[in-house]
Design brief:
By secondary structure, the chain is mainly alpha-helical. It folds into two domains: 176 residues, Tetratricopeptide repeat domain (Serine Threonine Protein Phosphatase 5, Tetratricopeptide repeat), CATH 1.25.40; 162 residues, Serine Threonine Protein Phosphatase 5, Tetratricopeptide repeat (Alpha Horseshoe), CATH 1.25.40. The protein contains 19 helices and no strands.
Length: 361
């Protein structure tokens, strides 16, 4: 049974608005088209891997020497350099570096790179618009625009736009990763699983991303026990793994254990909106603690308003549940043979809120 609980890279589809009629007709590129695109871009990915290995084995100076020697670094190489710079230096220093670069150059790439570290969503969108006006073919910027605008609307237009973009550019790794993030919100878990199966895009990426992608697939397929075994074998720890574990436990009907896991995460990460969201759903659907569910969903909305991390659909769903919890309707009399069961969503989705892994996102 697939869960509605949100995990590090998974969250159930939200029961708001329509079912995504437009997106029912939209399709993703075939495996053959993606394989051809990968082959066409093999040299680019090899160069990215070389850069990453130099940085990991010899440090920042070696990376910079390699970067300067490239005749044309390209968008993904610039993004990799920026992501590694965020590991090496304070975020404010990196933001200043790219703001000054944008002010000095004003080209499409400079605007896009600054958007990736912009302090607000509004500024990021403005910069992305600038980048796309200068270079409509900067597909990575278009992916980010779809992601950010998709947090503010409730229809399925972002999903359709993304699928059309992937049809134009089947090797757009950044687009496939966003598809894995958002597709289940529109009732398209099939597309999310197809996107997950495209991983890994690079051999140097954070291995946990592949682990969490596999866990997403297991949970979407109703294999919660398998997901738990996969977690245990990998020895995965931390916030992301804990969110996955609590989701799998809830799917197995082990709600008390799932709550204990979320309690542990809440103590370690008191400002994480995802933990509050999961606690709210677990209290509402599995443990039947309406007062606790109200407290957690209210806290989720407060934390999310500060971070701007969640989609419009998820915020709308939390607000809808709060209205239901505050104004409960009388339950109909039970029918013979009926019984209570956890309220499950239609599948998990990846969430990119855990910080940038090395390499293109």
């Amino acid at each position: 049974m697939a869960s509605r609980l949100l995990v590090a890279f998974t969250v159930g589809a939200l029961a708001v608005g329509g079912c995504g009629l437009l997106s029912r007709d939209a399709t993703a590129p075939s495996a053959a088209e993606v394989a051809q695109a990968r082959a066409d871009e093999a040299a680019q990915w090899e160069s990215l891997e070389r850069a990453y290995v130099l940085w990991s084995e010899q440090g920042w100076t070696a990376l910079e020497d390699y970067f300067r020697a490239l005749p044309q670094p390209g968008v993904r190489m610039e993004v990799l350099r920026q992501d590694l710079m965020l590991i090496e230096r304070p975020a404010d220093e990196v933001r200043l570096t790219y703001r000054l670069r944008h002010q000095a150059g004003g080209d499409a790439l400079s605007a896009y790179l600054y958007s990736r570290v912009a302090p607000t969503t509004a500024l990021a969108l403005t910069l992305i618009e600038q980048a796309l006006r200068r270079d409509p073919g900067l597909h990575q910027a278009e992916v980010d625009r779809i992601r950010l605008e998709g947090q503010q609307v409730g229809d399925d237009e972002p999903l359709v736009r993304l699928l059309n973009l992937l049809q134009d550019d089947p090797g757009l790794a950044e687009g496939w990763r966003l598809l894995a993030d958002i597709a289940p919100d529109y009732g398209r878990t099939d597309l999310a699983l197809r996107a997950v199966q495209r991983e890994p895009w690079s051999s140097f990426q954070d291995e946990s991303r592949v682990l969490f992608a596999n866990l997403s697939a297991l949970l979407a397929d109703g294999q919660a026990e398998g997901a738990l075994l996969h977690l245990d074998r990998a020895g995965a720890q931390g916030l992301e793994a804990g969110l996955f574990r609590s989701t799998a436990l809830a799917d197995l009907g082990r709600a008390v254990e799932a709550w204990a896991e979320l309690e542990r995460l809440a103590e370690a990460h008191p400002q994480d909106a995802r933990v509050c969201f999961n606690r709210g759903i677990l209290a509402r659907d599995h443990l039947h603690w309406p007062e606790v569910a109200i407290d957690e969903l209210e806290r989720f909305l407060l934390l999310d308003a500060a971070s701007e991390a969640s989609s419009y659909r998820r915020r709308l769903q939390a607000e809808s549940w709060l209205r239901q919890l505050r104004n409960p309707q009388p339950s109909p009399p039970p029918t013979p043979g009926s019984g209570s069961r956890p309220n499950a969503g239609s599948g998990p989705r990846p969430n990119a809120g855990s910080g940038p892994p090395p390499g293109p996102r």
